[in-house]
């Protein structure tokens, strides 16, 4: 939810606030859109406040669903790259990852259970689905583009 943190985590991606603006524009155009809220990085953005802020911003943008994962997956090779970035932007966090997760592929936040509970409560409050509906092609009478 924090643009400054997002810039560190995804330096070449649009800011979080810009993404929420696009969600709002897509919804205004009648397009089904939501959020894949992942990864949520252990010891970095796995906070209750971040979850609250993300869900609240999604609600303001009229997102129709949010799919969460409170953790990160690390394959061999990507783990080493990720650790270099941790050393650069979050000194000391790499050691927490090594101690907590070793060489595990799935690195779930130690706070995952509490965060899932908070997430589902907040989504229920804002009436945001936690499931993405499957695509259904338009019915024949809805195909006006080509008529």
Low-confidence stretches: none
- Number of helices, where a helix is a run of at least 4 consecutive DSSP H or I residues: 6
Tally of extended strands? Answer: 4
Strand order across the biggest sheet?
1-2
The helix-and-strand class reads mainly alpha
How far apart are the termini?
43 Å
Work out the helicity level: 40-55%
The geometry reads as: elongated
The main β sheet shows up as: 2 strands, parallel
Written as H for each helix and E for each strand, in order along the chain, the element string is HHEHEEHHEH
Radius of gyration: 18 Å
Arithmetic mean of pLDDT: 93
Work out the strand percent: 5-15%
Task: Describe the 3D structure.
This protein is mainly α. It has helices at 3-9, 16-28, 48-60, 78-89, 93-101, 112-126, and strands spanning 35-37, 66-68, 71-73, 106-108. Strands 1-2 form a two-stranded parallel ribbon. The protein has a two-stranded antiparallel sheet with strand order 3-4. Helix 3 links the parallel strand 1 and strand 2 (66-68). The protein is elongated. The termini are far apart.
Write a brief structural summary.
This protein has 147 residues and is mainly α. 47% of the residues lie in helices and 8% in strands.
